[in-house]
Specification:
homodimer; 369 residues; alpha+beta; CV3147-like fold; CV3147-like; 18 strands; 29% helix; S-Me-THD_N (chains A, B)
Chain lengths: 369, 369
Amino acid sequence: MSWQLTSADLPDLARGATLLGTGGGGDPYIGKMLVEQVLGDRSITILDPEDLTDDMFVIPTAQMGAPTVMIEKIPAGFEATLALRTLEEHLGRTADATMPIECGGINSMIPLMVAAETGLPVVDADGMGRAFPELSMETFAVYGVHGSPLALAGERGERVIIDTGDDDRQMEWLARGITIRLGGVGHIAEYAMSGADVKRTAVPRTISMALALGRTIRLAREAHRSPFEAIAETLSTTLYPHVRELFVGKVTDVERRTTEGFARGTAIVSASDPTSDDRLEISFQNENLIARRNGEVVAIVPDLICVVDHESAEPITTEGLRYGQRVRVLGISTPEMMRTPEALQAFGPTAFGLTEPFSPVETAGERRA
Amino acid sequence: MSWQLTSADLPDLARGATLLGTGGGGDPYIGKMLVEQVLGDRSITILDPEDLTDDMFVIPTAQMGAPTVMIEKIPAGFEATLALRTLEEHLGRTADATMPIECGGINSMIPLMVAAETGLPVVDADGMGRAFPELSMETFAVYGVHGSPLALAGERGERVIIDTGDDDRQMEWLARGITIRLGGVGHIAEYAMSGADVKRTAVPRTISMALALGRTIRLAREAHRSPFEAIAETLSTTLYPHVRELFVGKVTDVERRTTEGFARGTAIVSASDPTSDDRLEISFQNENLIARRNGEVVAIVPDLICVVDHESAEPITTEGLRYGQRVRVLGISTPEMMRTPEALQAFGPTAFGLTEPFSPVETAGERRA
């Protein structure tokens, strides 16, 4: 069922989107402020994917770049809409709706920004079901919808169209080159598709899930209940039903660098008990990719690895990680459509150069008797 | 007057274009082979700019990249035509002719390649009047025609459109980023313009001048005459009337590196007499930029600095420079439209970070009494 989103929903949505960002995806709070400013007291129509007619035309919109740069380089505001209009003009066809390509992080907000500016509705679905660092890591692509032609807009009104046919990795490679030359951030419109394609290839209801997660954390805090129980309860009725606490401890080391347009690095969370040498190591490329507890893999991409405050459950991004923070690390299962062999080829461990095989978080690291 | 160019003209044209490449511009011999292969025994119509009607539509075509890479990465052949077709489609308008953006080096050949493939005529004019390393260094831009939108094609059929409005430097910056990610070479269509604009902004008759230069050098050799006298005689009736011999000697040092998509470096030519410490230092960025004789500037961009074999006058590119070569270095004056204050801002010394002011080669380095 379609519904209306207002500015009052944005803080909860931002919190939930940060959780689904699994450490990356860019800070949605900056995007939230931009949406609030443009939206005012109006509302945005959020379309349930099942409500789309097959011949509707949907153009997803997003921001691309390293999250570390996105924090420092606040968009002018018009860029994503300019990318959408550029792609419409190129295709000679007007969009009936926009949609996120990524439900985690700032890209939960960019389509709302476009909606607030244009009046277009936003489809409650996305192509990552979380955040991923590359434009080719999309369920859209996995199930046959390609990203090209992609339109990219810069803050000085630069407009670029990239068409690499079926080669989404080459599209990502060229668009990343432009984004780096634009100073580290670009706004894009890509993966234009029909309503039928959305229903077939998108991860459904991820905006409403992000909103529900952010809200349940807030309400639990207000009611002095455990936000962790609230998270588990909320997820139990979604396509992401399994949550595991992977570790509780404090951050004892963070190493990060921005290279080739990505934020890469490692974080160590150690047991609070100083006599224990129990520890969790998390590696990330924009997003958290793999969590090893004392060397053993307990969660791996595409499952979600979320670092949150140990009491409030406030999600912490990789660029927000600081020495001494007391955190919990959650593993959350992803939908089955994100765990198929073809999906794992696009955004599973090997896509990030990891040699460890995918292992579902609900059973990973369980020692066999 | 318009004329027909055949495969028989290509060796002379390549020689002349290498001379006008002033050390850079990419090796035209590879381009020549590609044109010969496609053209066979047909001919290409070369249109004199004065024969264009004002409302004709001209789309220039070219290759971009570092000459050092161009030698190793031979184009598939279809790329420049694909760039032209991509721009036509984007603009919704069909070209009546193509044209070089650069008359020196390989870009003398790329529009001929497009002509051989499509049957389009080629306008006898260009926007650099020589070779320059950047797409924004065009008389077109200096006199009000901008490069955007630019279409860029890659060897795997990648197509990119870049529109930076009036900002030709930003266009160059973004297109260079794509070219680097394509492996160092891209093919482009840009500076689409009317016949009236060609007549107002292009350097006229530079294809026929390159052909005449290459031919006069060959005929002089065949007649055992001095090719240097022949060059001077041929240039005397063009917009490039002044030739000076800047130095005769042998190459004693060459330092070059390929960085940021450009070939940069320095060459030293020393007097053949070992008791003399007379020497000429040439700095280049793809093309030769400045020649200093014993520290004194004797030629500076945009005037032409051409290193040629000391006897045959065969032009030598920066990547062809070798220790011990016996060479003459010629300085050739550029047309007045390339020496105006606005032209010097686009491609004069300061555009290359040189602090020395422009000084016409016909008088540069002359000591005042």
